[in-house]
Amino acid sequence: MSKHYTREEILNSTPRTGFFGHPKGLSTLFFTEFWERFSYYGMKAILAYYIYYSVAKGGFGIDQGVALQIVSMYGALIYMSGVIGGWIADRIIGTRHALFYGGILIMVGHILLSLPNNFTLLLVALLFLIIGTGLLKPNISSTVGLLYEKNDPRMDSAFTIFYMSINLGALISPLIIGWTQINVGFHAGFAIAAVGMFFGLLTYFLTNKKYLGLAGLEVPDPLTKEERAKFIKILSAIAIVVVIVCVSLAMLGQLTIANFANFVTFLGVGLPLFYFVKMLTSKKTADYERKRVYAYIPLFIASVAFWMIQEQGSTVLAQFADTKTQLDLAKVTGGLIDFHIPPAWFQSLNPLFIVAFAPLFSILWVKLGRFNPPTVIKFAIGVLLAGVSYLIMVIPLSAGAELINPFWLVASFLIVTLGELCLSPIGLSTTTKLAPEAFTAQMMSVWFLSNAMAQGINAQMVTVYTAISSNQYFLYSGSIALAIGVLLFVASPFIKNLMQGVK
């Protein structure tokens, strides 16, 4: 049985300052998260290349469409696993144990990737990474909140510092791991990711007891004996069904990547749908709350449309950077700069632009005062910018050049990041404001599932990308996002009315 600690006991057990005026525990979580994101984004920057590069180049030589499909499925399952990881922390082991065990599984996943080529080993490694990230990612953020009193004015600043660790890790790792992949090899790149996660675990192991005290050690809503027995039965039943289905499909020759992609897409669409139906039909949801959930649905759809394009940075645009972009700067600059750009370096553009522009956007919203656009309009702008980021790619592709100037790709990443700064930071706060009281945590799961749904759909879209011309793909995808953005603008008065006073 988990011991219960009061808020006061938790706060008294941690050093209250020592890290830029914040509790010292924030430094433990900052560096743990930095190294976890370092390992995640560095590995993801070269994952598609590892799968589709020829065996001679150190890869598996798998079809490009299938390779991009695997990366999309990996992204979708990462976001779905976070919902389960949050539940395990709340009901079984607490956030501190969840994030530590998660970190160990992530490190093991990267170590497996650093071993010689074996496709089964690759899939096992990705499974370790999915489970590990599901345990670590949601629970490290929750632990940050435990270091502060509910009304502590430093809370917003703490999360800003914490999110900086994410973007710094995401910015630096593709540069280091991308260069290593080109100059040494894939396995050396994955080994660096493993070492990164090891540093994160080491930081946590050496400082957590001293700096985090009692924060995150208790299990907030532990399973009762009856619930535990029921949980074991359900888990066993699911495991048996999965084994039977897999064996049956294998015997029929249907245990394929394509069929698994269909299953992930079905899950990605089905889970959010299940949550919406549950909230809208529940007797715990008041009438005014029901209207707010209806208002949230178009915002959710806009979010899915946005993340579909944003998350293709590590699939479609990663492949485009590798195969259709002029990476030899000597040819771009007329011999002025003699350097070959590692294609994985383009993965650093999104975090670079976030670090550069996030402070400007936060100042902009404040300066606009009463002219600050409402949530619906910000979402619409975000989706419109995502559409534009794809439509501008049509310009160089229409010129007929075999390889396009890399600055077009930089412009595409910049525009979609500006869209992200309009939509992503306010997504979380809007979700909490529109959530029915009885479903606050589950509504937060729905927000993260918008990304899972986007990547689940992308598991189908990326095969379309390799089947039609790049020109057509960017034109159609960009136009659909643009249409959704315009529809959101048009419907904004109706949606604002349903929001029942939430801005």
Short description:
With 503 residues, the protein is mostly helical. The protein has helices spanning 7-12, 25-52, 64-113, 119-146, 155-183, 186-212, 225-251, 257-281, 287-310, 316-323, 329-332, 349-368, 375-391, 394-398, 406-434, 440-467, 470-498, and strands at 18-19, 22-23. Strands 1-2 form a two-stranded antiparallel sheet.
Descriptive overview:
With 503 residues, this protein is an all-alpha fold. The protein folds into 2 domains: 7-222, Growth Hormone, Chain: A (Up-down Bundle); 269-503, Up-down Bundle (Growth Hormone, Chain: A). It has 17 helices and 2 strands. It has helices at residues 7-12, 25-52, 64-113, 119-146, 155-183, 186-212, 225-251, 257-281, 287-310, 316-323, 329-332, 349-368, 375-391, 394-398, 406-434, 440-467, 470-498; strands spanning 18-19, 22-23. It has a two-stranded antiparallel sheet. The two termini are 42 Å apart. The mean pLDDT is 91.
Please give the structural blueprint.
Elements: H1 7-12, E1 18-19, E2 22-23, H2 25-52, H3 64-113, H4 119-146, H5 155-183, H6 186-212, H7 225-251, H8 257-281, H9 287-310, H10 316-323, H11 329-332, H12 349-368, H13 375-391, H14 394-398, H15 406-434, H16 440-467, H17 470-498
Antiparallel strand pairs: 1-2
GO molecular function, one term: dipeptide transmembrane transporter activity
InterPro entries: Dipep/tripep_permease, MFS_dom, MFS_trans_sf, MFS_Transporters, POT_fam, PTR2_symporter_CS
Subcellular location: Cell membrane; Membrane
